[in-house]
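User: Structure please.
Assistant: Input sequence and predicted structure:
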Amino acid sequence: MLQYWCLAASNQWNSYRAGVDHARESDLPQVHYSCFSGKAAKVPFAVFKALFHLLISKCNRKTRRKLAFPKELLLIDSTTMTVGKTRLPWAPYHGERAGIKLHVALQAESLQPLKVSESVGSKHVGPMSETLVHVDYIMVMDRAYGKLERLDRFKEDGQSFIVRLRDNVHLEKPRALRRQKVEDSPVIRDMTCQLGTSQCRSKNRHRIVIFRDFEGREIRVATDLMQVTTEQIAQMYKARWQIEVFFRWIKQQLNIPTLFGTTGN
């Protein structure tokens, strides 16, 4: 069976039944399609996930452009793909829908995933982000990942990050940082402060950069990066749109029920 699935991946077969049609061309035993598709429920998912991560580690060439960033950017986000509840009965989502959530760490330079984790659609993204952290990269994340305790831990562990803050996060005792003024800069403010109220407040002071995005909306991000300009930090966060393009592509390519099957495996 392993031979079938490897050949399916390399030849982009459309379905399990298409694999049966191609079996003889690949010098594999001819079997009835019903027998072949029935075996799909026993696909060793953990093995194929390990093979996937091994494959992308071989594909990810370490040659990258020499940007003025201290480390390469790692874009962290998730996307939920939904189908009818009867298609994936083991992954209920909302109402009559079932869903799978993919948590992806995408390298901004190569646009290749560094790591992918999966969960049912109802699982929160915050805890899953812990499986995607990588100290060799600057993690760029949206508001869903901005838990104050997590930001403190990243800073203490030396994990570089740029995380957008929710609009209701209180900035405690802000202190402005000196910066060189740049003409037509999108940056509004640059400061350090603690985050949150007295009931829930970060232990550490974090650098906060406030700037306007492509549509003129005000964005607040927290970061541990102190040796880069505010304009660079804004540019790093704006790189997040690339992962949205990746999600759009992967949703067009994946057949969710065929990929995940009708069982939890």
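Residues 190 and 209 are 5 Å apart (CA to CA).
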